[in-house]
Specification:
Elements lengths: L20 H14 L12 H6 L2 E5 L5 E6 L2 E3 L8 E6 L2 E4 L4 E8 L3 E5 L5 E6 L23 E9 L2 E21 L5 E17 L2 E8 L10 H6 L1 E11 L2 E9 L6 E8 L5 E7 L1
Antiparallel strand pairs: 1-2, 1-8, 2-3, 3-4, 4-5, 5-6, 6-7, 7-8, 9-10, 10-11, 11-12, 13-14, 14-15, 15-16
Length: about 280
């Protein structure tokens, strides 16, 4: 930024610039320099508090292992919960990519109290027992893997005709991330693998329908936030009527209590229609 010319100020006493000119120049200089500066990080990390948290922490009353802080990562003792990046900012423990914060109540070299998502105070003490290390034999958690292909088939009579249906649940390597709360009331992330389910329908020897089903097919019928964490877990034959053959797909968040049931109806002409019938 270039300072504007001030030569039009003609009333100048001998001996230099007018006294009121200096404040104006300082304001203009500040404006110029301010356009190139950046504001400091308002959420700088508390390195000292982070150093105090290093180690294995257990519940003060039960003695159950809560977590291990190592470097900038928190590891959990169960085999499925994913490690979480952490930092301590403004007297709060900040976890994961969602930056969920838990207010710290007390902290010292051997004591750590914080409020969980319910507002309860979790009281932890640092463990000096070497056996607690056995709970962390690996820093890589186990992913929920389903390796067995599950097949079902049956022959049914419909409108005097003989039909044969076939389904196969095929495990994939498509990862599904789910969020839940552990015993301390802390949000943790687990990883599962999704499935692709195939349906084939024959009238005698003639194939009238064949398709792979993926959970993305139910986009717009199931809330997107739920669908992101759900696994396509089953495809059950539910009978036939005038509209066709009904196959019920189950979409569930693993470990959760809520599932969506989608009715996939295949007409005798091979046309597919899908509706949500239960959740």
């Amino acid at each position: 930024m270039t300072l504007p010319s001030l030569h039009f100020l003609s009333r100048q006493p001998s001996g230099g610039q007018p006294s009121w000119l200096l404040p104006i120049a300082l304001v203009l200089l500040a404006a110029c320099s301010g356009s190139h500066s950046s504001s400091p990080d308002a959420t700088s990390e508390d390195k000292e508090a982070k150093a105090l948290l290093q180690g294995i922490w257990v519940d003060d009353e039960s003695g159950d292992i809560s977590f291990r802080a190592k470097g900038d990562t928190i590891y959990y003792p169960d085999s499925t919960s994913q490690p979480a990046y952490f930092r301590i900012v403004d007297d709060s423990l900040e976890l994961g990519q969602s930056h969920t914060r838990y207010s710290i109540v007390k902290q010292s070299a051997h004591l750590f109290w914080f409020e969980n998502q319910n507002g309860d105070v979790v009281k932890l003490v640092k463990s000096d027992d070497q056996e607690t290390n056995d709970a962390f034999v690996s820093d890589t958690p186990r992913t929920m893997v389903y390796t067995q292909v599950v097949k079902h088939d049956s022959v049914v009579m419909h409108a005097g005709e003989r039909y044969h249906w076939y389904t196969a649940i095929n495990p994939t390597k498509y990862r599904v991330f789910t969020k839940s709360y552990n015993d301390d009331g802390v949000e943790v992330e687990n990883v599962y693998f999704d499935n692709i389910i195939h349906i084939s329908l024959y009238q005698g020897a003639r194939q009238i329908f064949s398709r792979d089903f993926r959970k993305q097919m139910y986009k717009g019928k199931v809330p997107q936030q739920f669908l992101n964490q759900a696994v396509l877990g089953a495809m059950d034959y539910a009978g036939a009527d005038a509209s066709g053959f009904h196959f019920h797909a189950t979409l569930c968040i693993p470990g959760g209590a809520t599932c969506y049931i989608a009715d996939n109806t295949i007409s005798p002409q091979g046309k597919l229609t899908t509706t949500i019938i239960e959740y």
